[in-house]
Amino acid sequence: xxxxxxxxxxxxxxxxxxxxxxxxxxxxKNNNLKENAxxxxxGKLAGDRKTNSLEPVKAKGFIKVPVVELPSRxxxxxxxxxxxxxxxxxxxxxxxxxxxxxxxxS
Length: 106
Description:
Layout lengths: L6 H14 L3 H7 L4 H19 L23 E4 L5 E5 L4 H11 L1
Antiparallel strand pairs: 1-2
Helix pairs in contact: 1-3
């Protein structure tokens, strides 16, 4: 009776496969490994590395978040002239231009 392969067995094969430049399927075939088992352990070991490298999160309730006030939206006006022409999008920022346009159009 043989013992099942352990973590170091799979890590060894994963390292050998990476160094070999072979496809995973070809490496498994050459080494009499089941490709689905190889994929499973490759993913499992990659997950172990990710889990071990992360700092544990210690939650202690609420945190203070700064609130940034956004500038209020300006209401845009539309001016309808007697000639049937309309000027839209009038705000405080372009009021001087609108006055100039109306002066030219009158």
